Structure formats: C-alpha cells, structure tokens
Amino acid sequence: MSIWSAIGLGSYLPCALLSRHPYVLAAYERDFLSHLDAYEAALPREVPVTLFIQLGWQCQTDDAATRLSQDFRAARQRLPQLSRVLFLANCPEEEAALKRQGEEAVFCHQNAFLDERRYPILPFVRKRYDALYIARITPFKRHALATTIRSLRLIGTFSDNERAYVDATLRSLPQAKVTDSYPALLIAYPINQARCGLCLSAKEGAMFVSAEYLLCGLPAVNTANIGGRDLVMPDFATAKVPDEAEAVAAAVDAFAAQAPPAADIRAATLELMRPHRETMLALLHGAGVSDELCARYARRFPHKLGLRCGHSPWRNRTLGLLQPR
User: Fold this and answer.
1) What is the DSSP string of 77-125?
2) What are the structural domain ranges in the chain?
3) Any idea which fold 118-260 has?
4) What are the two backbone dihedrals, phi and then psi, of residue 234, each rounded to the nearest 5 degrees?
5) What does the alpha-carbon distance between residue 81 and residue 46 come to, in Å, rounded to a whole number?
6) Tens of pLDDT, residues 216-247
C-alpha cells in the first residue's frame, strides 16, 4: 500500500502508521519543525523513519544552514525514530553548506516535482499581458522592479500586517491588473495569457512558479538570486538582468517582440527536471521502497511530492508518507 499524501495532523491516522515496517516521510523544513508535537504523537517510536526535507527557504548561506542544522539536532532528540534525515538541496552551494554542518544533503531540485500536466501550453489563449508576476506581495519579492513594464498582470496574496507596503506597491503599479489569488488547478490559463514571466526576488527558496512559467512555454526575466531557481531554467529562455526596473522592462519588451518557441522552452525545462527525478528514484530505492513503487513514481511523481497541495478533506497537509514495502 502506498501513501504519499499528507495527512491532517491529529485528524486522520492512515494504516501505514500502524505498520511495523520502516517508512519514508517527506516534509518542508518549517512545516516539520513547527508541528513537532503532532509528529511526536503520530510516529511510533519503534518504527524507523527516513525523512526527506524540502527547503522552502534558502539554506546556502552558512548562517541559514547553521540555524537549520541546530533545529534538526533538537528534533532528532525528540524523535529518535528518525533514522535518517536527508535534505533535498536546490543548488550545489546549498548542499555544500548543509554538509559543512554535518548534515546529509543531496542536490535534488524541488521544481522537478511539478506535475507538468498541470501546466500545458494553450495556443488558443490570446496574449493579453507582456509580463506576469505570480508572487506574494511582500518586500522580498521586489515588485518595484516591475514599475516600468507597460503591460503587467500580478497574481499574489498578502498579509494584513503588510497592508501599508501592499498599498504603496500597488500605487506604484497603476498599469497592472491585480488578482489576489487564482485556483491552482487553473493557473495555466493566466500564465498562457502572458508573453513572459517575472522572477525578481534576490533571496528565497527555489520558487516553484519559475518552472511553472517555463512549462507553459513562457520565457522568464530573472534577477541574480540565491535559493536555486536558476538550475531548472533553460538559458535560451531566461533573460538574466540587473536589479533595475529599466533593465527588467527592456528584457520584457524583447521577449514580447520575439520569444523562443513555447514547445522548445517546455521541452528544455523537462530535460533539466529529469536528472532530479532520477536522483529521487535512487534515494527512494535506497530507503527500501519497493521496485514496484519506484516504477510507479518513475511514471508519475505526486505533484510537489504531495506537499502543500491543499487536497480536501485535510486542510493542513504537512506529513508526507510513503510506506516502503
């Protein structure tokens, strides 16, 4: 029986948890650390656990890697059944920083586990915007770099405690059509309405949406950054620009005038994703996952490894499970 879906903490206990076989968990680092009480209650101590950790924020700086390692040392003391904790790094620098802390890490990019079926090229959709930025309206996303783009679509939520920043940001972007949210299963439609996507943060995680643009056949305008997103972005479909609004707008105009073929962008992105999927298959096999299940995941991994996907009936999906045998 396979369960690589997250459970609502305290609301449902799948039969895999009752097994005495070892099994595999997948979680984001903050989701795991902030729900240690629930994990401690759910996981029998006599069952050895392999834990794959996705990184929602960059850990390639030594300070960030040190803090994360300290947090997980404390977590291991509380959960001795964690026989192996493996960090899935989004760039080689992140892998190296975590290894310097004595952690086990492997370069295995999170964006490789997007389900490409959700992000089709839609040739029948009319291009309405030169650029699209799907990003929470918060300072690290640097919306100010989009102020001189002539035709812009923004999709992103924001928190109430950043209302002043949000209001000032939107006043600086009067040309933009703004939507605070969009159904995840339909996001390919607004992506296909744009001529290129924007990736403007200087520091974050690997930024799933950078690959979502590309799978839909859009080129991307990208600033220098840490967090790893560049590693699944084809060079010919990515304009790397300085942190200047004029440079961002010029790159957008160039893509609006002439962009690489959408099918080529998608195919190249999938090719960059492929080795990371192969790495994950090797890791699962090494963790004791059966050949049958590995073959199944070779055909189709769960979208984002089943994490933070919001499937009902559990709203708080933070515990990813895969029973190995």
Assistant:
1) HH-TTEEEEEEEESSHHHHHHHHHTT-EEEE--GGGGS-GGGS---TTS
2) 6-114+273-322, 118-260
3) Rossmann fold (3.40.50)
4) -60, 135
5) 7
6) 999 999 999 999 999 999 999 999 999 999 99
Residues 175-232: pLDDT tens digits?
999 999 999 999 999 999 999 999 999 999 999 999 999 999 999 999 999 999 999 9
| Residue 123 confidence (pLDDT) | 96
Both tokens of residue 67?
A: 């803090």
Give every CB contact of residue 147 below 8 A, 6+ residues apart in sequence: 172, 173, 245
Instruction: Report helix, strand or coil for 6.
Output: strand
Question: Looking at the chain, which runs of residues are DSSP E strands?
Answer: 6-8, 23-28, 49-54, 82-89, 104-107, 131-134, 152-155, 176-179, 197-199, 220-223, 238-241, 317-322
CA 122 to the chain's CA centroid: 23
Integer Cα distance of 189 and 288 in angstroms: 40
User: Which of 121, 325, 183, 149 shows the shortest CA–CA distance to 252?
Assistant: 149
Secondary element (H or E) of residue 61: none
Residues 6+ apart with CB under 8 A from 281: 294, 297, 298
CB neighbour burial string for 58-85, b if at least 16 within 10 angstroms, e if fewer:
bbbeeebbeebbeebeebeeebebbeeb
Peptide bond before 313: cis, by omega within 30 degrees of 0? yes
Q: What is the DSSP letter of 302?
A: P
What are the tokens at 61?
Answer: 């700086």
Between CA 152 and CA 154, with CA 189 as vertex, the angle to 5 degrees is 25
